[in-house]
From TrEMBL:
PROSITE patterns to which the protein is assigned, alphabetical: ABC_TM2
Family from the record: Belongs to the ABC-2 integral membrane protein family.
Compartment(s): Cell membrane
Single GO molecular function: ABC-type transporter activity
Keyword terms of this UniProt record: Cell membrane, Membrane, Transmembrane, Transmembrane helix, Transport
Name this protein carries in UniProt: Transport permease protein
Main location per the UniProt record: membrane
Entry's transmembrane regions: 24-42, 184-206, 227-250, 262-284, 296-315, 350-370
Domain ABC transmembrane type-2, first and last residues per copy: 130-376
Membrane topology according to the record: Multi-pass membrane protein
GO cellular component: ATP-binding cassette (ABC) transporter complex
Amino acid sequence: MNIYRTLAVSRKEARQIIRDSRSLYLALGIPVLLMILFGYALSLDVNDIPVAVWDQDRSPQSREFLDQLTGSGYFRMVFRTENYKKIVQAIDDNTITLGITLPHDFSEKLKKGRPTTIQALVDGSDSTRAGIAIEYLKVIIATFESDVKLAELNRQAVLARVRQPVDPRIRLLYNPELVSRNNIVPGLIAIIMMVIAALLTSLTIVRERETGTMEQLISTPVKPNELIVGKLIPYFALGYVDLVMVYLMGEYVFRVPFRGSLLLMFAASGVFLIGALSIGFLVSVVAKNQFFATQFALLATFLPTFLLSGFVFPISNMPDVIQSITYIVPARHLITILRAIYLKGAGIEIIAFPLFMLVVLGFLVSSIAVRKLKKKIQ
C-alpha cells in the first residue's frame, strides 16, 4: 500500500464531504437528534402507574394499605369509586392501568387473623407494563402483610422472642437506582455510530459511478485497498467527532455515570468504526444507485442493530438460533463493551472477547469489500 496515493484519495474524499453539505448535516445533525429522541423518549422505567380504587371497607387499615400503595412512588391514584363498572370502563378507556377493590370485611378479617382478599384488575394489553405493575403490587402487599403481622406480635408482647428466619440484604451494583437511561445511553452510542457510519460510506463508490468520476480513478495507479482506506479515513475522523458529541451529551445532558477508561472506550469504538464503515463501503460497491445504497444500508444496519444487539431486547430471551446469529452483529459486542466500561469500569481483560469479535468482523467485512471492488466499469 502506497501511503501517498492513499492520502491523495483521502484528501479528495474530504473535499467532497466539505462541499456536500447534506453529508455534514447527516453526519453531525442526526446523531444529536437521535440522542435526544431516544434518550428522552425511550425509557424502560415503569412508574407513575395510574390506579383506581373501590374501597368498600373505608377503615384505618384499608387507608393504611392505600397510603403504602400511593406512597411507593410507583402508583398514582386517579380516582376512587363505589362502582365496579367504572373501574372496568376506565381500563377500557386507557385511563388507568390498575384497578383495586378492597372488600367490606378487609379490616375485620385482619383483626381476627383470617385471610382476606384484595382484587386487582390489570390492563394486560401492554404485557411488559402489566407484569411489572403486578410485581410492584405483590411487593407492596407483602410489605403491608408483614407490617400487620409485626404489629400483632408486638401487641401480644411476643415480638422480642420471634426471630426472623431470613434477613435479606440486597445490594445493587453498578446501577443502584435502576435508572434505565444509564443502560440505554451506552447502547444508543453503538446504534448511532453503526447507522451513521454505514449510511455515510454507502454513497462513496456508487456516487463516483453516477457522477462519472469513476473513470478517472480507474485511470490512476491507485489500488483497491488504497482506494478503500483513503476513502474511509475522512469518515473515520468524522465518526470520532460523532463519538465525542454523543459521549458529551451522555455525560452532561443525560448525566450517565462513566466509571471506566476513556482511552479504552475510544480504542474499542475505533475498532468498531472500521467494521461499520466497511459495511457501508461494501454496500456502495455492490449498489447500482445512491437511492438503493442508502435504503439498503439503513435496512442492513438499523434493524439488526436495534433488534439483535441486546440494546432493548435481552439476547438471553431469544431462541437459540437467533442468539447464534447475534454474534455476527457488531453492535452487540460494542454495546457489551460500552456498558461494561460505562457502568462497571471494566478493563481490557473483561472486554477481551467482544473486542476480539469486533476485530474479526471488521477484518472479514473489509476483506470482502476489497475483493468486491474491481477497478473497471461493469
